[in-house]
Description:
Blueprint lengths: L1 H10 L1 H10 L3 H19 L6 H23 L4 H29 L1
Amino acid sequence: xxxxxxxxxxxxxxxxxxxxxxxxxxxxxxxxxxxxxxxxxxxxxxxxxxxxxxxxxxxxxxxxxxxxxxxxxxxxxxxxxxxxxxxxxxxxxxxxxxxxxxxxxxx
Length: 107
């Protein structure tokens, strides 16, 4: 999902309009796309461990909470602001699964 949205941020005109609707500057869309792509690389690359993965999880947490707040504050309907909450739940599941796997490897 994060990689797809990063790609859409860079290529879809609708995303440019959506960021404008939320009140974000145009450059923020590009910064966010790059950060999302780097976060995906950090989470999916087995050689990357420790703090890099923790920062990626923290960054995605901030993205989902911010998306929820931005959509709710702009008056968007529940369809727009519930998706970030669902993704946040999936992020928590991934985070706790990752830590459970790491604890199992150390045993």
